[in-house]
Amino acid sequence: TSTVTLSTTVPTQTITSATITTRTITVTNGISTTTTVVSTLTSSQVVTLTSTTTVTVQSNRPSGVLTYLQIVPQINAGASYAVSDPATHMTDNYYRNFLRETFIVTPEGRLYSNTFNAYYFLESNTATSGLLFWSTNIASSNTNFYTTTSGGQTQVMIKQSATNATPLKFCVKSVASGNGNADTGLHIWFYRASLASVTACSQVSLVLAPV
Prior knowledge:
Blueprint: E1 2-15, E2 23-26, E3 31-36, E4 45-57, E5 67-72, E6 82-84, E7 90-92, E8 103-105, E9 111-113, E10 118-122, E11 129-135, E12 145-150, E13 153-161, E14 164-167, E15 169-173, E16 180-181, E17 185-186, E18 188-191, E19 201-210
Antiparallel strand pairs: 1-4, 2-3, 3-4, 5-19, 6-7, 8-9, 9-10, 10-11, 11-18, 12-13, 13-14, 13-19, 15-18, 15-19, 16-17
């Protein structure tokens, strides 16, 4: 593996009589964010903040652009991103709002998780609805994923099949449903036609968001 460091300067802020310390948040999936600022301020002072994000990149990753998958609209409070749970499903990040995961939509039509060095596939290629699963075995992956841009947003889509270009839809289970993984969040489902085929699930788009 290798690492890529991305630095962003936060807009200048004026802070009055505040104590500020260096804060580091380390995420177990290989992404860490460190925000460094000055220590103690005793009067009004303009401060420039710099946020640095370090992403661990798999050495054998496929070609493509690393992005987050943002859930639009947000369904469960604080859960804005799609992540992979330890039980090999895709969920939102409701139980760990700080968690981020990087993905690649490959030229071959695969959805790749850089974090787990794994590929996604549908629970069933014929069922009316189901979960999204991941596997480190590339042979298990679906090759019907693609991206499309609409309204200024680039979304991840997946065709019904190799011979049916009609896209599937995605939805996120509600907190009340309890349908998720306590380590990450609530499950993200696919469905073919009617949202009614998945109870307690709200339709969303999976939007590519820059790292």
